[in-house]
Amino acid sequence: MIGCKKIFSCTKNNWQGITITNNASDQIKKLMIQNHNAKGVLLSIKQYGCAGFSYVFNIIEKPTEKHLLFKLNGAYIYVQEEEMPLIDGTSIDFIQKGFNQIFKFNNPKAQHACRCGESFGV
């Protein structure tokens, strides 16, 4: 598991946290290098698709105290604490097959997903 930011206690909140593979870590670092102001990526969710929610990655330049920090090998992922109940325990991988590349999310909270894999429901 990736560590929790100092103001956040995984055990106090009974969170499992967010984990990422080395492939995902490498790709996040590449995204951070492309934007020299980047402090990491913000993992958030939005209402989307037929199943209810979708994952969103955005570059974050100014994290706040409301963001939880998870890191691995120089890759930084920020999450807003209020979104943790929907994504806690999620593992993130980065998959490349030919010209196709995608971040893959394995969320134990997801009870169903749409057929195309773009949205999930809890």
Automatic annotation (TrEMBL):
One of its GO terms (molecular function) is 2 iron, 2 sulfur cluster binding. GO terms for cellular component: cytosol. One of its GO terms (biological process) is iron-sulfur cluster assembly. InterPro entries: ATAP, ATAP_core_dom, Fe-S_cluster_asmbl/transfer, FeS_cluster_insertion_CS, HesB-like_dom_sf. Pfam families: Fe-S_biosyn. Residues 18-117 form the Core domain. Belongs to the HesB/IscA family. This is Protein SufA. It comes from Candidatus Providencia siddallii.
